[in-house]
């Protein structure tokens, strides 16, 4: 029947002894993936040894083929981030952030509330540190804490300058108060000496008159 349908030419082309269809290696690939603990896509089967691989129908045989190098687990494909790092480095410098690259309003991209919270935390952290280091007392801490909340200092540098200015003013006032107190004491002592001198002169005059 075969010869009747295709003739002698068909018989030569599709003769049964010469017909060698590619045998399926799905079983071997599945077993190898199970043994190597990876996906079937990462399993490489040597195409030149397909007939030998097709004979392996157990995990034991698959392990032997893996040891011989006929079955290999391919390396994970590289997913390079070098281009992403390069882009991020450029964005940190301000590139690629023009009007055409923006996908939200200014408030959506960087909320003012977030900026406010960051600024307050920076200022309050500085005040806490200064208080712990005894650079400011609790009264100055409270004063600058309330003023920081009242938006008096736009950054840490301004707050530090304000602290130094306030401390200098307090120190100056203290020195002036001490100088004034010392001057009063000197004046009081001079007045006492003067009064005592007058009393001595008056007493001497009285003693001379009585004689």
How would you sum up this structure, described in words?
By secondary structure, the protein is mainly alpha-helical. Helix content is 67%, strand content 3%. α2 (26-36) crosses α4 and α7 runs antiparallel to α8. It is rod-shaped.
Write the layout of secondary structure elements.
Layout: H1 2-13, H2 26-36, E1 43-45, H3 50-55, H4 59-68, E2 71-73, H5 82-92, H6 106-109, H7 112-132, H8 138-149, H9 156-210
Antiparallel strand pairs: 1-2
Helix pairs in contact: 2-4, 7-8
Strand content: under 5%
Radius of gyration: 49 Å
What is the residue-averaged pLDDT?
89
SS-based structural class?
mainly alpha
Question: Can you give keywords for this protein?
Answer:
disordered N terminus; rod-shaped; mainly alpha; 211 residues; 67% helix
């Amino acid at each position: 029947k075969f010869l009747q349908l295709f003739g002698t030419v068909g018989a030569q082309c599709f003769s049964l002894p010469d017909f060698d269809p590619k045998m399926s290696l799905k079983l071997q690939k599945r077993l190898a993936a199970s043994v190597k603990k990876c996906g079937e896509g990462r399993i490489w089967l040597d195409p030149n040894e397909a007939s030998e691989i097709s004979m392996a129908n157990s995990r034991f045989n698959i392990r032997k083929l893996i040891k011989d190098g006929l079955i290999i687990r391919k390396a994970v494909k590289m997913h390079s981030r070098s281009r992403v790092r390069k882009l991020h480095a450029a964005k940190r410098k301000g590139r690629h952030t023009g009007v055409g690259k923006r996908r939200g309003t200014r408030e959506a991209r960087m909320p003012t509330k977030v900026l406010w919270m960051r600024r307050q935390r920076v200022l309050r952290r500085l005040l806490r540190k200064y208080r712990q280091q005894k650079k400011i007392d609790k009264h100055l801490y409270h004063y600058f804490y309330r003023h920081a909340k009242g938006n008096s200092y736009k950054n840490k540098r301004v707050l530090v300058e304000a602290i130094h200015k306030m401390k200098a003013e307090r120190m100056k006032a203290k020195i002036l108060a001490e100088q004034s107190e010392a001057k009063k004491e000197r004046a009081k002592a001079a007045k006492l000496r003067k009064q005592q001198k007058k009393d001595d002169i008056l007493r001497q005059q009285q003693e001379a008159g009585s004689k």
